[in-house]
Amino acid sequence: MTSISKNNLDTIKACRYCPMCRQSCPSEFISYKESDTPRGRAMLLQSVYIAGKEYDKSTVEAIYNCFVCGSCKSWCSGFEIGAYNIPELIKFARKDIVRKGQTLEVVESIKSSLLESDNPYQIVKSASFSQIIEEKKADVLYFMGSEINFRNPEIARAAIKIFNHLNISYTLLKNEPESGKILDLLGYPDEAIIKAGQIYSRIINSGCKKVVVSDPLAYDAFKNDYPGWGFKFDSKMKILHMSEYLAELVKSGSLELAKTTEKITLADSEFLGRFNAVFEAPREIIKSSAGDNFVEMRWNREKLLSTGEAAFTFNDRLFTQGDKLGEKIRIQAHDIDCTIIITLSATAKNNIGDHADIKAVDIAEFVAELI
Amino acid sequence: MKLEQSSYMFDMVLFELQDIVGKDYVSTKSSDKEVYSVDYFWIPEMWHDRQKGRDLTRPSADFIVHPANATEVSKILKIANNYKIPVTTWGGGSGSQGGALPVFGGIILDTKRMDQIFCIDQNSMTVKVGTGIIMQHLEWELEKQGLSTMHDPASANCATVGGFIAHRGTGVLSTKYGKLEDMIVNMEIVLPNGEIIKSLPVPKTACGPDLNQLFIGSEGTLGIVTKVTLTINKIPEVRRFRAFIFKDLTTGLRVGQRLMTEKLQPSVIRLYSEDETKEVIHKVLGIDKKGAYMVYGFDGRKEMVDLQLKYAREIADEEGGEDLGEDLGQQWWKNRYKFFFPPYMFSLPQCFGTLDTVSTYSNIENIFNAMKNVIGTKYPQARFIGHFSHWFNWGCMLYARFIIETPPEDPHELLFVHNSIWNDALRAAIEAGGVLNEHHGIGLKLSRLVPELYGNSFDILKNLKKSLDPNGIMNPGKLGFGV
Ligand SMILES: Cc1cc2nc3c(=O)[nH]c(=O)nc-3n(C[C@H](O)[C@H](O)[C@H](O)COP(=O)(O)OP(=O)(O)OC[C@H]3O[C@@H](n4cnc5c(N)ncnc54)[C@H](O)[C@@H]3O)c2cc1C
Ligand code: SF4
Ligand code: SF4
Predict the structure, then answer these.
(1) B268 and B202 in a common domain
(2) What are the CB-based long-range contacts (under 8 Å, 24+) for B151-156?
(3) Overall number of domains in chain B
(4) Contact state of A43 with B24 under an 8 Å Cβ cutoff
């Protein structure tokens, strides 16, 4: 048995028979199953890490069904004292599962895809957006993340439009590698660290002063994982999410947006918001254009509805039910008569989708439209 | 029929179930079996907790099925009857009595896919829902329109509407708005034989016995409630609280009785025994006072609430209450759910139980003392605390608890201690005019005591069970019906 930290044990002991945050768990919305709740997962892990049972395949599946979204944490009234942390527990468990060689086929195949082509979808490297760009020396390094690089190049194009409009010296990484975050979340820290090392040296070698990141997973990795993996950025090097970067420009007066009359709301991001407390920057940007037409959804900031940023697999298959998560967000936007939902990750944008009455627009696209 | 997973009959039944609900909604996975073998009953939790190095097993389901509507429920029950397979309904699994445990295996029928809100009628002030909806999800939807059922239990986050119907659940505001059972207008029920029936459109008729009453509180032993129409209310203009300390429990109980019988219509009265004031109120609210803590609350139109608070204050002053002010009352309301989250809530390895009962004002304090006495005398290792939280014109509910900090290690021995405390405390309660339970139900935990409570009238219920469920497939082992 691998040794488990006291914090993780405390989480198991608190959560294993506690149903008090299950109403907030997005994986349970999808399957309706008790094993897809925080309580269910903690119970299963109690059997492994306290009772000493071996993992079986269905327990492994339940552990991978978690979206590591932290909703449970946000709804836990005992958190302030107990610091119960299901996402951390799940990350530990996945690493242990991988170490024991008991991971799922689908997880293995995502890993291979990430290692071979820097995206989880087995899309060939040559189809990436960053394949065609010219890498150069610049002040700002724009890091897209694999979702944008392989699925949503329109977001990268919007970012480039903004940089050009403002005459900012920027670059992208040619054949941008995956940040290592997905590998780490899936339980492959060694592989994640190798990726991180490659990116770290390319960022340092680029000579840039700022890294502007669109992908909240990559942002979280740069800020919170890289230092622990031995890749600490110099304090002068700024790591900013695109929303933070644009908010700074708006605040300084360098960026002025045309006024919009559309009613707009914001889908907060779990990795940006919950895990990094970036809540205000996107609001400042949107309000600078929409003013009072910016309206909050019922569940916002810490209590945001999960967008599925770290939902990779479900029941030993690739996760394909993102629309169900998106629908919950759309309903909220509908309740407040909004026609546009601003998103902070490509995954959120894809899961919310474009519909007849509501469309999801990435923050960079929103700004690019209004300059 | 007992099903072995290796037998082709297992696959035959699995095939039929999948044919009804689809492959994704039937599970035979060991992870699901494990998780559905423990609800909020202390015994299976303890059994699960202590499994390390011991040969402890928990009964588990063969199939976990998630039907989408009454028609699918009906088909499942027909299959279960054909093969004589037990069916245990599972809502949120938050029941503390083991009601949802599949103690004889068979099918767990999880209702949570039946979570639709069909209609909100703001004229009749009703809402029609699937019974699998999580209470809090329903409240959030109603709240958008300024409405609420006013059923506000601590388990709103995790329990379903159907679970509350089955266990006669109650919420913090029950003193004014009633228990969930008082909010029921009509229901759709699937009988054990698969027949789908509806109760009459409204409840207060003179058309014979009320069918709703056969199924409310029947804990999935007589049928499965699939839809319900509930009454709703406008969210009140104001809701205000005030907290007091009374010198002792007797005084506090008298204040509560006066608030009710002088018809002040409080929405909340919560009175904590001296011991619980010292232990729980101190821990959660930081109030360090001797005596019995009471919070009461009123809601509605502002001017009316002002008047209600004025008269209530007069009663509290007459009874010598120390006023802690509105803020401490409000603080209690804000933190009302916090009591149930770890680390505030009791948890293993502690041995504990909630001995809730209800009785008249004339008997309730005697019941409290009788329970306290029997536990104090026979189980010196246990603490006994209690509060009084749901009040009626004729009496109130006692939410008593026993806690043993360091119980025996051996799970078998511990089970016997646990059950003996329950038997002794509840027999003392019954003797003093109480009943087995007020809002958590019977389940497996108290099943053995039901015939004692009912005496010779229990035959009526047994005959009813036999005629509705001749094959005994519905939640066997619960509510005193045996197998
Ligand atoms: C932290 C916590 C706090 C609690 N606070 C309260 C409280 O304030 N007030 C309160 O009343 N209770 C409270 N409870 C107890 C519990 O929430 C209730 O007993 C609730 O009614 C159980 O609902 P459930 O959906 O979880 O039902 P389950 O536990 O899944 O099932 C309970 C019983 O109902 C049956 N059943 C479920 N659905 C149906 C259906 N549709 N048709 C027929 N039978 C059905 C099951 O077979 C079982 O016998 C609390 C529990 C917890 C964990
Ligand atoms: S995170 Fe908090 S509320 Fe959720 S299961 Fe754990 S202890 Fe309970
Ligand atoms: S992290 Fe998210 S998906 Fe995982 S248990 Fe918590 S709420 Fe559910």
Answers:
(1) no
(2) B151/B177, B151/B179, B151/B180, B151/B183, B151/B230, B154/B336, B154/B337, B154/B339, B154/B340, B155/A19, B155/A20, B155/B92, B155/B94, B155/B340, B156/A23, B156/B337
(3) 4
(4) no
